[in-house]
Specification:
InterPro entries: ABC-3C_MC6. It holds the Pfam family MC6. The chain is mainly alpha-helical. The chain has one domain (4-84): Arc Repressor Mutant, subunit A, CATH 1.10.10. Helices cover 45% and strands 7% of the residues. It is built from four helices and two strands; from the N terminus they run ααααββ. It has helices at residues 4-8, 20-31, 38-46, 58-70, and strands spanning 74-76, 82-84. A two-stranded antiparallel sheet has the order 1-2. It is globular, with a radius of gyration of 12 Å.
């Protein structure tokens, strides 16, 4: 991602699936099923049957999780696992 400001929220030049806000929302739905590591989340997003149309990289996923953490929607629940705040 070249311009982080444009990537955070959907914009006329960025699809919702490519925005960090969109990715963070979808990651939150995955975290509702239980705490996961970043590697587990990335594997779920990379699966052919994933409901998310984009295939984000680890850096995009880490930024999306950091966004969830910053707004209080996710927390670290175990050593390396992230869980959704209910």
């Amino acid at each position: 991602m070249r311009n982080l400001e444009l990537a955070v929220a959907p914009h006329e030049h960025i699809r919702f699936a490519d925005s960090l806000l969109g990715l963070a929302g979808y990651v939150r739905t995955l975290l509702q099923e239980g705490p996961r590591t970043l590697d587990e989340l990335l594997a779920l997003l990379a699966r052919p049957d994933s409901q998310w149309p984009a295939r984000p990289g680890m850096s995009d996923l880490a930024l999306a999780v950091a966004l969830l953490y910053a707004i209080g929607a996710a927390r670290i629940v175990e050593e390396d696992r992230v869980g959704a705040v209910r």
